[in-house]
Amino acid sequence: MTSIRRRSFAVTALALACGALPLAAAAQAAWPSKSITLVVPFSAGGPTDVVARVLGAAMTKTLGQPIVIENKTGAGGTIAAAYTARATPDGYTFLIHHNGMATAPALYRKLAYKPLNDFEYVTQVVDVPMTLVGRKDLPAKDFKELQAYLKAQGNKVNLAHAGLGAVSHLCGMLLRQATGVEMTTVPFQGTAPAMNALVAGQVDLLCDQTTSTTPFIKAGSIKLYGVTTPTRIKALPEAPTLDEQGLKGFQVVVWHGIYAPKGTPKEAIDRFGAAVRTALQDPAVATRLAELGAQPASEDKLSPEGLRQWLAQETQRYDPVIKAAAQFAD
């Protein structure tokens, strides 16, 4: 090879190498280049699923790729969480989960993941009040009458929940502890089937999120006995709190956070989190969530670090609560 040809070859190689750098950078900046899976630990139609689908539709417009909802149910959300923890950390798998991320360590002796170690934190999403509701033909007209009814009927009363580890399960445990009545619990595979059973009059009571119960309450299909927040809520302004009706200190609020497999690229986490926050500011999304009683999380919880700190705080909070209610757990 002549010196001229060698110089020409070297120049060409250098040009190709330099040209490859912007191409590689462009490839990295192309996220997302395909659909993104948002794993939901509970059944379709349930409260977490509703939040995920409302957000997902708006986020699709922001990110330019479909947000595919994948329902992986069972074991109080631990199956979905374990699945996400094991997923390839490429920025195309995320998990939306509620308080169950904080309660799982106390509820389950063996977990296939560690909530505080095996995930990247993205953002908190919304806070959702809970409601105590009953079948339409339950004799008690208000919570005072319900308390008397519970004491008279005892374990003849059927209390539904959406499965071990679901927030409705936790709320039910706390209700039984607070009232001192050991009702018969009836587990279902998700909120939707539990609600269907309540509407059909097959069970007596259910404690679940406003995102699921509000439409049925407003339709008159079920009876509302109170909300679980310290103050009344905008979605159901006439509904008294359980606290003001004598169940002092009774408070259960559901919060939802978004997580990714450990090692997920920071760019994907940041952009996905930003898309969530943009969706929460969308007037149509805000209106829909407000109708269901859900409120966007406070600003300090919308960062990855804010979610991490909140999860750690809630894990410490729920551990003694669950242990104290263990005699009612099933």
Can you characterise this structure?
Belongs to the UPF0065 (bug) family. This protein is α/β, with parallel strands linked by helices. It folds into 2 domains: 36-128 and 254-327, D-Maltodextrin-Binding Protein, domain 2 (3-Layer(aba) Sandwich); 129-252, D-Maltodextrin-Binding Protein, domain 2 (3-Layer(aba) Sandwich). The chain has 11 helices and 10 strands. Strands 1, 2, 3, 4, 5, 6, 7, 8, 9 and 10 form a 10-stranded mixed β-sheet that branches. Helix 2 (47-63) links the parallel strand 1 and strand 2 (67-71). Helix 2 (47-63) crosses helix 9 and helix 4 (100-107) packs across helix 11. The protein is globular. The model is unreliable at 3-17 and 20-28 (pLDDT under 50).
Radius of gyration: 24 Å
Element pattern in H and E: HEHEHEHEHEHEHEHEEHHEH
* Poorly predicted runs of 5 or more residues: 3-17, 20-28
Can you count the beta strands? 10
Q: CATH topology of the largest domain, what is it called?
A: D-Maltodextrin-Binding Protein, domain 2
Q: How many domains would you count in the coordinates?
A: 2
Secondary-structure-derived class: alpha/beta
